[in-house]
Every structure is written in structure tokens, then in C-alpha cells.
Write a structure and sequence with these properties.
two-stranded antiparallel ribbon, alpha/beta, about 290 residues, 7-stranded mixed sheet, about 50% helix
Length: about 290
């Protein structure tokens, strides 16, 4: 792992167009080699985009593997490049809403697109923020991950263990630190409800709605994507959601999934298709991945 991290550190010196093309090539190889992950991606695409042909879905899956591999290699730039270089490479639309986030407790809602790490960099370069993470098996990589994500907000309390529960998040939000939240993965039935995602029942966390209600806060979505021609990344902030979450947590969760669906249709290749989004099934329904 130390050797791999050393290689990543070396890679961050490369021009981004060269690093991106290397990542694309690695992704093409992984698409052929990682058959299980390819099957998961194609299954998700068939469920979510049935109007596409098999060839179209296979092309989207290939582009996803290429984009994901790019994002892993380009993480070296996010972790070690100078702030000046990062500001040149990250295009923010319209700007990081730090003033708006200071007015009330805020969730920056960041769905799982492959460049999502860029959102954290853009936000923390503009001001303090907190997030959660899952502890890694490798202590060496765990330390590197923590340092990378805490690079511009070095207070260790800004990166909370996923198993710590909701209270530290509420406390941080009430103390003026926006919470960068990744809401769209299947963490099992606990604290989730089944809400349609592209018409398929998906175990979906109600935490964004519950946290917003508990703190009298607001949700500001943020989306990330590659800029054309390997020129960097775009981070787009959307207006804060009006009247969210309301009184119905299930309906608020449906609203969130509908928003993510719209963004996926705009940029399907960069969504995280290799995750088993429909792993948890309603009682009595068979697995879609067997």
C-alpha cells in the first residue's frame, strides 16, 4: 500500500490531460477484467435505463469504468497539488455558497458521481465543513484518506466515523459546519425506506430529511463532473430546496431520489453504477444480482 501511495504521489505531477488518458486506459482494462463489477453495472443500467439498447448500456458501462479509474488516479491531484493548481482546474458554478450555508445548518447533498471527491475539495477550500467516512482496512491507506479529506480543514472532528451515529453530525451542523452528505447508497434496511429509484424499489436513507428537520436546516445539492478534454472538473451548486423536508419523511426521500434521477439522465456515464444499489430487496422479492 505504501508503494501504491508513492506511485499516486508521483502521478500528481503529471499534466492532468496525460493523467486522465492513463486513467481512461486503465478503466478500459478493468471493464474487461472485472467481470463481476461489469455485470453489476449492466444489471443496474438495465433496471434504470430499460429504454436504452444493450449496446448503448454497454457503452455507458464502459465509459463509467473509464471515468471511475480516472477519478481514482486524479485523486492524487486533489490530495497533493498546490491550491493554486486546484483553483485553475476546478470550475465552480456559480460559487461555493458559504454565506448561505452560514445562515442556518446546511447539508451539501452530493450524489455518487465519480468525481464526488472534487466537491469536498471545492467546499473545504472555501471554508470549514464536515463529512463521514468508513474506516479502511489498511491503516496506511486509512491515514492517507483522512489526510487527503482533511487537507483544507485539518480539525480531525470534521471527519466522523460512520458508526458514530447522528448526534455528532447534528452538533457540527448546529455549530456552523456544513455537512457534506452522500445519500444514495444501499446501507441496508436500518433507517431506510423503500423508495423508487428509476421505478425500482431502493432502500434509501431518510437521514437527509431527518437531519434537516432536526436542525431546522437546509439542503443544497452539489453535483460534480469532468470538464471536456481533460481540463479539470466542474462543481455545480443548486439552489437550496424550498419547503424541505415538510412533514412526510417518505415523501421527502422520494423527492431526493427524483432529483438524483434527473441528474443521472443528464450524465449517465459518470454515475456510480458498480454499486449494488438494489442489494436490499422488499420482503419476498428475489435478488436482482444473482
Amino acid at each position: 500500500m505504501r508503494l501504491l501511495l508513492g506511485l499516486m504521489w508521483i502521478l500528481h505531477w503529471l499534466p492532468l490531460p496525460l493523467l486522465g488518458r492513463i486513467g481512461k486506459g486503465v478503466g478500459s482494462v478493468l471493464f474487461l477484467w472485472m467481470r463481476d463489477r461489469r455485470r453489476i453495472a449492466l444489471t443496474n443500467l438495465k433496471l434504470c435505463l430499460p429504454e436504452k439498447s444493450d449496446d448503448e448500456r454497454r457503452q455507458i458501462a464502459l465509459l463509467h469504468f473509464q471515468g471511475y479509474a480516472r477519478s481514482v488516479l486524479e485523486r492524487s491531484v486533489l490530495w497533493w497539488a498546490s491550491p493554486e493548481r486546484l483553483r485553475r482546474l476546478i470550475q465552480i458554478e456559480p460559487s461555493v455558497p458559504t454565506a448561505l450555508a452560514a445562515e442556518r445548518p446546511t447539508i451539501f447533498l452530493c450524489p455518487h458521481f465519480v468525481c464526488l471527491e472534487v466537491a469536498g475539495v471545492a467546499i473545504t477550500m472555501a471554508g470549514p465543513a464536515c463529512s463521514i467516512y468508513s474506516r479502511q482496512r489498511s491503516k496506511v491507506f486509512d491515514e492517507a484518506l483522512r489526510k487527503g479529506r482533511l487537507r483544507f480543514t485539518p480539525d480531525a472532528s470534521n471527519l466522523m466515523d460512520r458508526n458514530a451515529g447522528i448526534k455528532p453530525i447534528i452538533r457540527a451542523m448546529r455549530n456552523g459546519r456544513p455537512f457534506l452528505m452522500l445519500p444514495d447508497m444501499d446501507f441496508g434496511p436500518r433507517e431506510s425506506v423503500f423508495v423508487d429509484f428509476f421505478g425500482v424499489p431502493a432502500a434509501t436513507l431518510t437521514a437527509p430529511a431527518r437531519l434537516t428537520a432536526a436542525t431546522d436546516g437546509q439542503v443544497i445539492p452539489v453535483l460534480t463532473s469532468f470538464l471536456p478534454d481533460y481540463q479539470g472538473w466542474k462543481v455545480r451548486f443548486y439552489p437550496a430546496w424550498d419547503n424541505y423536508p415538510g412533514t412526510d419523511m417518505d415523501e421527502a426521500t422520494r423527492r431526493m431520489n427524483a432529483f438524483i434521477e434527473e441528474r443521472v439522465r443528464e450524465n449517465p456515464a459518470e454515475y456510480f453504477w458498480t454499486h449494488k444499489r438494489f442489494k436490499t430487496r422488499p420482503q419476498g422479492r428475489p435478488s436482482v444480482y444473482d
